[in-house]
Design a protein that fits this description.
By secondary structure, the protein is of the alpha/beta class. The chain has 3 domains: 3-99 and 333-353, 3-Layer(aba) Sandwich (Udp-n-acetylmuramoylalanyl-d-glutamate--2,6- Diaminopimelate Ligase, Chain: A, domain 1), CATH 3.40.1390; 105-126 and 240-325, Udp-n-acetylmuramoylalanyl-d-glutamate--2,6- Diaminopimelate Ligase, Chain: A, domain 1 (3-Layer(aba) Sandwich), CATH 3.40.1390; 131-231, 2-Layer Sandwich (Alpha-Beta Plaits). It is 28% helix and 28% strand. The chain contains 11 helices and 15 strands. The protein has helices at residues 3-13, 47-56, 80-90, 100-104, 109-117, 144-153, 208-218, 252-262, 292-297, 327-331, 334-345; strands spanning 26-29, 39-42, 60-63, 94-97, 120-129, 132-140, 167-175, 192-204, 226-230, 234-250, 269-270, 278-287, 302-306, 321-324, 351-353. The strands form 3 sheets. The protein has a 6-stranded mixed beta sheet with strand order 5-10-12-13-14-11. This is GTP cyclohydrolase 1 type 2 homolog.
Length: 364
Amino acid sequence: MNVKKVTQILEDFAPLSFQESYDNAGLIIGNRNAEVSGILITLDVTEDVLDEAIELGYNFILAHHPVAMGGLKRFNGNNYNERIVIKAIKNDLAVYAGHTNVDSVMSGVNGKICEKIGLADCKILEPKKGELLKLVTFVPQAQANSVRAALFTAGAGHIGNYDSCSFNLNGQGTFRGNESATPYAGKKGELHNENEVRIETVLPQYLKNGVIQALKQAHPYEEVAYDIYTLQNSYEQVGSGMYGTLPTAEEELVFLKRIKKIFGAGAIRYTRLLNKPIKKVAVCGGAGSFLLNRAKSVGADIFISGDFKYHQFSDAENQIIIADIGHFESEQFTKEVFYELLTKKIPNFAVRLSNVNTNPIKYL
């Protein structure tokens, strides 16, 4: 098992293209071809985590928060980020971060929060736009089924709970090959008419190269004609935050106390109670104040996140309860997301959750 194989598993689960522009997800330190002796999972990379990995003999650290997200210009050991990079390199440790890309997938950070709370019918709170493409291609009628199957196998044609989605229209294509051509049908230098099927299907951006490769391999023509369009449709399976419903409505303080216990929060900062049962719940791991209006728009009774500033609590405007449980507290179960993924994909491999509590905030 080398570093490249582990990163491929992680990026198949949460493609790097899903990360926000400010982020630094991916392999930050390490050689992709190095053999992996063991994987240590943590929320943050600290010097104590590095020591733990070294003591265990593990050389791959998988974190949620990236090291040096803003970039480093010097490596003098003057701050903890510089010391971490220096120490990791000295000890041949690979450091990988799955951050906002893991926030964005339904079974990632926010999906795990919903699971812990017990929410059902969960959806993305703010779906991403510009992530979907439409592929249009033209195929001889005899090969339409096999080309469609190849596209679907490569990942095209998924819409919500449906797969193998396409639109098909019969028509006629024309072509004339020159002396260097090897035409599928017709003769060189002669105009040929072919009964074709126009196939339209959708795919996410990150699968583009693989889908086009599958198209070219399955298509009988020497030169494959196809068009790619960027769609403005929302990608409902990818985005920021999530929301869902409780099986049974709960009284506000009862729910808040349950949340405090589930997440082991030292304290919950919350807005005025609205004196009505809580049924619909919106969540966002980490700093989620930017999603407050979205939480209101879907009719959530409460929005659970972290890092709300003083004046932002007033934005609840007695329409919703804001419950700030803390940044670390809201994201702590990301370690479980990674652990479950890796132990399923590589079951007989050394994967361990770090014992280091990396939360920099303490409560009295």
